[in-house]
Amino acid sequence: MNIPESTKPAIWGAFGGAIVAMVIGFAWGGWVTGGAATQMQTASAEAAVVQAFTPLCVVKAEQEPAQIALLKEESRYQRDNFVVEAGWVDNVSEKYRSEVADACGDSIVEGME
Fold this sequence. Notes:
Helix content is 73%, strand content 0%. It has one domain (8-112). The longest helix is centred in the middle third of the chain and has 29 residues, at 34-62. It is rod-shaped. The protein is an all-alpha fold. The chain crosses the membrane at residues 12-31.
């Protein structure tokens, strides 16, 4: 195939421009691959579940003031276990229970300070 000499610079320019556009798009333009988009979507959905169930847990905890005082005495790393054992996150799926319990415990203790 014989390509005229006058079109070769245009072809190389288009090829180079496409590469530059992709580099700029992925580096600074916010473009992501399908896999990265799926991971971001999953993380966002999980965060939404935690945010939705945390207030319900706090309301259950407020109904037991004696337990709240005991929760404040627990170390930060043991609060989620305390919340689960208290039964404040029984309505949450097992998949999200630990994260909701952690957020709930933190919210309760921060609210007391």
